[in-house]
Design a protein that fits this description.
The complex is a heterodimer of chains A (226) and B (348).
Chain A: H1 2-15, E1 22-23, E2 33-34, E3 41-45, E4 48-54, H2 59-66, H3 68-79, H4 81-88, E5 91-97, E6 100-111, E7 114-126, E8 148-156, E9 159-164, H5 167-176, E10 183-186, E11 191-194, H6 198-208, E12 220-225
Antiparallel strand pairs in A: 1-8, 2-6, 3-4, 3-12, 4-5, 5-6, 6-7, 7-8, 8-9, 9-12, 10-11
Chain B: H1 2-33, H2 41-65, H3 74-104, H4 116-166, H5 171-186, H6 191-206, E1 214-215, H7 216-233, E2 238-245, E3 252-253, H8 259-270, E4 277-286, E5 289-297, H9 312-324, E6 329-336, E7 339-347
Parallel strand pairs in B: 2-4
Antiparallel strand pairs in B: 1-3, 4-5, 5-7, 6-7
Helix pairs in contact in B: 1-2, 2-3, 2-4, 3-4, 4-9, 5-6, 6-7, 7-8, 8-9
Classes of the chains: A alpha+beta (226), B alpha+beta (348).
Chain lengths: 226, 348
């Protein structure tokens, strides 16, 4: 179990930032999902070019539907009323890094006056080897468990700040016994996976989402519009 | 001063009980709310805050609303205020955990992990539990007071019975001793038997009658001895009939309960009479039902016991019957001019 969790965590970190908090459950649910189309477009983050589209009209979804193997899986997901509601109001972000194209589903939720994003990595395929072979997908290898990263979104002109929750801060608070939230500890790799429910996560961010101690510059990704 | 000290001690005990109860509830809630073992500091803060919203409702209910429970109308005086203060406290609880605690305890991070319904259940359970505790405590106190009152009443009755028994007039002993003295001067051959009977009677009066209950057969035996002695004193001009029916061996009776009637019949019949005297005694037993019937003719000159003790014997036995056989006896005393009839029905 711990190794599975580790994989989930490490893959998430690999795809974006070094120390962002990971959660087993999504922050966003079908009943709370919201949209903000300002997020769509082509963005630049350091040396990465990130494209964000609405998931139902995205090339990712079209490619997925075109894939014979994935068809049934996609169909089953979208046939579920809850998932269908969630994903039809979600976005997909893709970028290329180290020869792999990463796809992440980004779902938004408004908590108070703040907008939060739940980022869920779904696919990482070699750029020069488009194939249906599951073995090529980084996220399909081994015993992968999907985990989610949570970020507060701040729009500033033609920039978006993804302020990811600082895992180090959370870990420190958990260690001190100052934070009450469900989590799993992996002593082997010194990582923590938040296991609180979606409702609890939303309550937590509704209460503490404005607390600047939850975020820091190292875990903030500023995307500039291209 | 002494009462004041006792009141202070009782107050301290009550305060200690409350503190102990609060700690117990705190401990239970802490172990319910904690995320890890042992509980973290945040769990203590969480539990303290939760308890802080519950306790005011619990104490308002115990000391303000519960005493109004019997007031009319019940809905207005009890139910509505209880519902209002509970709803207000639940609202405070939710606000505290969802918003206010972020500013009150900036170093701690927690949210309410319960829905309003689950929080309500906590409140309801604690209110019910404390109500039951208070009611059971009150019940125990009432019970204890009742026991103490009963014990005191029992002691008072015992004292009264003891005093009543002590009042059984020893007058006849002195008279009998006088008769014995005369018999000894006359060298009467009945003397040894008479002394023996008196001795038996004295033993019974002084020792065995201290028991709460004595065998009925023994009490009847004493009646017979008493009659025999009275015969000696009355020169055998008496017409005494004694009929005993039923099995007296298995039954018990309060001691010296029947003798006063017999003594009374001798006082007012035999001693006062100048002509033929009769005493008819009939004791019938049916199961544990005793029927005591005593008839005698009244003397023409009621000269005996012209002192303060006159009439005390019957009053004494009536009081003892009320104390020892409440609702289990029926006494009829008939004064028919020449004859005097006593009928006592007793459930042994």
């Amino acid at each position: 179990m711990n190794k599975k969790l580790f994989l989930a965590v490490s893959l998430t970190i690999l795809t974006f930032l070094s120390s962002c908090l990971t959660s087993l459950n999504r922050l966003v649910t079908h009943s709370t999902v919201s949209t903000d189309n300002r997020i769509m477009g082509n963005w630049q983050f350091e040396d990465l070019q990130i494209k964000i589209e609405s998931l139902p009209v995205s090339s990712f979804y079209k490619d997925l539907l075109a894939s014979v193997k994935a068809k049934e899986e996609v169909k089953s997901v979208f046939d579920s009323k809850e998932d269908s509601l969630l994903y039809s109001n979600s976005y997909v972000a893709d970028f290329v890094r180290n020869g792999y194209r990463y796809y992440m589903i980004c779902s938004l939720v408004k908590l108070g006056n703040d907008l939060f994003a739940n980022i869920e990595p779904v696919q990482a395929r070699p750029v020069n080897k488009p194939t249906d072979n599951d073995g090529d997908d980084l996220f399909s290898t081994g015993t992968y468990i999907t985990s989610n990263s949570i970020a507060k979104l701040v729009f500033k002109g033609n920039e978006i700040e993804f302020r990811f929750i600082d895992a180090e801060f959370v870990r420190e608070q958990l260690k001190k016994g100052n934070l009450a939230i469900k989590y799993e500890k992996d002593d082997l790799f010194s990582t923590d996976l938040i296991t609180a429910s979606s409702v609890d996560l939303q309550h937590f961010l509704a209460k503490y989402g404005k607390d600047q101690k939850l975020y820091n510059k190292e875990n903030t990704a500023t995307l500039k519009k291209i | 001063m002494f009462t004041g000290k006792i009141n202070r001690n009782n107050r301290n005990v009550r305060i200690m009980q409350h503190i102990l109860f609060i700690f117990l509830v705190f401990f239970i809630l802490l172990n319910t709310f904690k995320f890890n073992s042992p509980p973290a500091p945040v769990d203590y803060v969480y539990t303290t805050l939760f308890l802080a919203t519950v306790l005011p409702v619990v104490y308002l209910h115990l000391y303000w609303l519960l005493p109004k429970l019997r007031s009319k109308p019940f809905l207005v005086s009890y139910i509505i205020p209880l519902a209002l203060i509970t709803a207000a406290a639940i609202w405070v609880n939710i606000q505290l955990f969802d918003h206010w605690s972020a500013n009150l305890f900036p170093g701690f991070y927690f949210i309410s992990y319960f829905t309003w319904w689950e929080i309500s259940l906590f409140f309801i359970i604690l209110i019910l539990l404390t109500t039951l505790l208070k009611l059971s405590k009150s019940w125990f106190l009432v019970n204890q007071l009742q026991r103490e009152l009963l014990e005191k009443e029992k002691q008072r009755v015992q004292e009264e019975l003891k005093a009543l028994k002590a009042q059984v007039n020893p007058h006849f002993f002195f008279n009998t001793l006088n008769s014995i003295y005369s018999m000894s001067l006359d060298k009467d051959e009945r003397l040894p038997a008479t002394v023996l009977q008196l001795s038996e009677l004295m033993r019974y009066f002084l020792y065995q009658s201290n028991e709460d209950l004595v065998p009925l057969a023994k009490e009847i035996e004493v009646l017979k001895d008493y009659i025999a002695l009275q015969r000696i004193r009355s020169d055998e001009k008496l017409d005494i009939k004694t009929v005993i029916e039923g099995d007296a061996e298995q039954q018990k009776i309060a001691p010296l309960l029947l003798i006063p009637f017999l003594e009374n019949s001798f006082k007012h019949g035999v001693k006062g009479d100048v002509g033929a005297t009769f005493i008819d005694l009939k004791i019938s037993l049916n199961g544990n039902s005793l029927n005591f019937l005593l008839e005698n003719n009244k003397g023409t000159v009621d000269v005996v016991e012209k002192n303060d003790n006159k009439g005390l014997g019957l009053a004494n036995v009536k009081r003892r019957l009320d104390l020892l056989y409440p609702a289990r006896h029926h006494l009829i005393i008939q004064d028919q001019g020449k004859d005097f009839i006593v009928n006592l029905q007793l459930q042994l």
